Fold these 2 entries.
Entry 1:
Amino acid sequence: MASTDWRQSIGTLLGFLLILSPATALERYPSLTDDHVNDLARVLAPSEQATLRTDLRNFRARTGIQVMLVTLPSYRDYTSHSTFETYCTNLFNHHGIGDRYRNDGVMVLLALRDRQVRIEMGKGYDRSWDSRASNIIYSQMVPQFRENNYRGGLQRGIDALLRELELPTQVSPAPSLGGFWVLLATLATGGAVFGVYQAWVNRKPKCSRCNSQRVTPLVPTPALLEEHLTPAQRLEDSLGSVKYPLFQCQDCHHITVVAHNQIFSSYSRCPRCQNKTVQTTYRTLREATTYSEGEREMTKECKFCNYISVETHIIPRERYTSSDYDSGSSSSDGGSSSGGGASGSW
Ligand SMILES: [Zn+2]
Ligand SMILES: [Zn+2]
């Protein structure tokens, strides 16, 4: 009995201290021991928990996004003053769900006796996600919850949520006007350089046989090109990657061929045949989003020999602007939420 008295005294003392501390200190948070499924209200069977945990873990491995399900018997067991929405935001921030820089975590919180559910989204999601979350709650979850089918509602809701998160989002493109001016400046500079380059290119060569400087350019007829250029040179000439002007010597009538590498050509040199006849093309296999990397296929194909190479490259995720990196006052080193998302009740 003595030990019970002792515990009661400590309890009273703690209660007294809590009353003295600011109101927020009265809020408690359940310990969430699992990164993905914390079924404190015991809505799911152990096997269902395990399946969902595997799904969410795989999803995170694939996209980097942490999605956590929390079920509570009642959120009012933990707070005396917060609304359901505020409590969800506080719980999210207390545990720091998601990546601390991307703020891309998502928490699904079901409060069973309160008959409320919320999809709380990290700061990295813009407000357009609020209506998406609301949509998922009212189309997939609430109808099932009304039938007391909590497992079904959570399963359908989380499936829909993961699908939505994996879709490429309409990330606002780089400001096009800025891009236009950069392009214009590049072209202007390029044009000036190109003018100098052209003057240098058009200088007359010396005759390759008698060294005379008295040479005149010839109009390149197909017959002349056929006679003086190799097949590879003729292909380069027609692709515009290397130009081969012809000059005829006025003294010895010899025809001199000059090679002018076209530096602005999109063709590159072939590692097999050494001609400048390789075309590079890109194909986007998967768009990058703010949440997942994309993939791009690069094909290099020689128009002269049969050289071909196909490589797949990762397109980095779209990045948020620096202002989105402000992680606020989270007590953990994870992501934070500023209250985005949606709630539903039934
Ligand atoms: Zn000559
Ligand atoms: Zn080749």
Entry 2:
Amino acid sequence: MSVGNPSFDVFQLSDEHVEMRKILRDLCDKEIAPYAADVDEKARYTDEALKALNSSGFSAIHIPEEYGGQGGDSVAACIVIEEVARVCASSSLIPICNKLGTMGMLLKGSEELKQKVLPSIGSGEATASYALSEREAGSDAAAMRTRAKADGDDWVLNGSKCWISNGGKSTWYTVMAVTDPDKGANGISAFVVHADDPGFTVGAKERKMGIKGSPTTDLYFEDCRIPGDRIIGEPGTGFKTALATLDHTRPTIGAQAVGIAQGALEASIAYTKERKQFGKSISDFQNTQFMLADMAMKIEAARLMVYTAAARAERGEPNLGFISSAAKCYASDVAMEVTTNAVQLFGGYGYTVDFPVERYMRDAKITQIYEGTNQIQRVVMSRALLR
Ligand SMILES: Cc1cc2nc3c(=O)[nH]c(=O)nc-3n(C[C@H](O)[C@H](O)[C@H](O)COP(=O)(O)OP(=O)(O)OC[C@H]3O[C@@H](n4cnc5c(N)ncnc54)[C@H](O)[C@@H]3O)c2cc1C
């Protein structure tokens, strides 16, 4: 056994990952953080972040090099999302949605479809969204009613989707629709719709608690005609593709949660050192110290689980359901707890928009809800345990 072996690299990120994080941190602090409060207050799109991420090649680093992308691995994609969310959760929806909206294609799309769609996203010229949810089909997504029918060489879509992140901003939408209503989940297919396709329209923005800089909208399909080759995989495989997508992307929501929690922790450390009560810094009280220690400890555990889930997805391991749900669920519960405690540590000031922690707390909440609520993650995990 060797002691003090610096080349022992188990549980250590590669030099490239570490270097990338440094570059991102600088970029995010300088070009994204200054706009985070304004984006939130005005509920406006994160234009500055899109520009900064595009010009540095970080808006969709998961796109493979053969499609004009950076070919970043799953852990690298999580680091991008984590670092952006550390300063602005809304902006982190740019890389999140780009991965979510393209993963089905990457997993099951034809070569022609990938060649048609992915280069525009890899170059930053276009962005993508993922459309599974409907008003009456949320957790029970297979109960969807949007229909797609073959018509000559084309597919014609009718129906609507709701809660679509970056709706109206994205160029490409991966849309799940029923092609054979008699077959339940096995009668659902996945398609790629372009924003300019005839019969496709976007609804009004939802007025939300958090991630206000990422528009969330309905999508409408009225005899929306798309070319036949825009189907992902075979008819009837769409629901499986949608779920396989989530196995790969739930760790990215975990990464978003870790980033939000990290931002709240750093703000709390700075504030509690500065703020004086009873003649000393509030960080001198053991209660504060223990709260900070618990926050940091849980963030560290969440981060490790997120990277583990991402690494397992990258290796193409089977049965990712448990670990990707666990990473998303644990990290988002940690983010909610940490951000709530951050507000507590700021006292009354934490309850105002003059400090960022109330935004972190509002933004954290969505990580417990989307890509499947944390109750649904527990359904997925327990199913894997009891199988
Ligand atoms: C801001 C935002 C962005 C989103 N972005 C997207 C997107 O880009 N693409 C997309 O397709 N969707 C998106 N969603 C939808 C999101 O994934 C759903 O809201 C979520 O899956 C829950 O569905 P629901 O809202 O219909 O809640 P419901 O399914 O009605 O759930 C309500 C409550 O019941 C619980 N519940 C339901 N079923 C069970 C069960 N079997 N066991 C235990 N508890 C259960 C839930 O956990 C929840 O607490 C987004 C949602 C929001 C709010």
